[in-house]
Amino acid sequence: MARHRRDTYYWRAKDEGYRSRAAYKLFQINDKFNVIKEGDTVVDLGAAPGGWLEVVKKLTDGKIVGVDLRRIKDIEGIETIKGDITSDVTIKKIIDLVGEDGADVVICDAAPNLSGNWSLDHARSIDLTTSALECAKKILKPNGHFIVKVFQGDMFKDYMDKVRENFSFTKAYSPHASRSESAEIYVIGKKFLTAPLRRNDKFDVVIKEMGASGDGIAYVEDFVVFVKEAEKGEAVKIQITDVKPNFAFAKVIERGEEQSSD
Questions:
Q1: Quick one: CATH architecture of 202-258?
Q2: Residue 204 annotated as binding?
Q3: Which residues are catalytic (predicted)?
């Protein structure tokens, strides 16, 4: 109670009718990164008690779905699912509601039940956010966006790397509404990648043509890869250095014999 007396966002949520002070975190994240736009279909994982759902309703007139193990008190115009996000049954229910094309945005402000043991709580947080990421990968549209709360700790970097593998833009951000003593931070992933490759993957390719900037162009399952310091006709082993929604960049790590360009 003493903390609540000093908490501006707690009282602001009470005054403005939001179910949770966490509502302002999503407003601030969206103001900075423009993740949720008018018309977007949004899925909120671990949505109870519904504070983020109320914010999403103000940000978009698209389809909104909330998912949680607990029942979410009804919000007009929002569909809710009581289920486990690691279950294929729950995934199917989400897809049935948002459509086979998928969601534009997946968000997750869920936290594990805290034990007071920091190492254990951090591990539980990473496990939960990994489940959220895996769920998002199954229901996001190509170029879709992702927001998830993570507790910082020694496994945080590895988790960030997992998000980077799946999104063209990734950033960690702490909104002003987060309490100063909290170890929580939000990871934002934008432009979900559906390319048949990921950063650091290696492939044997032949340079088929030259790009306007002088890079060689190869193809991996018809996906365009720009290869630095490669010439048309070369057979090379490449390593992917960066992936965008419609193309990737790579470097040569081994050269073979030049092939005929006929």
A1: Beta Barrel (2.40)
A2: no
A3: 149
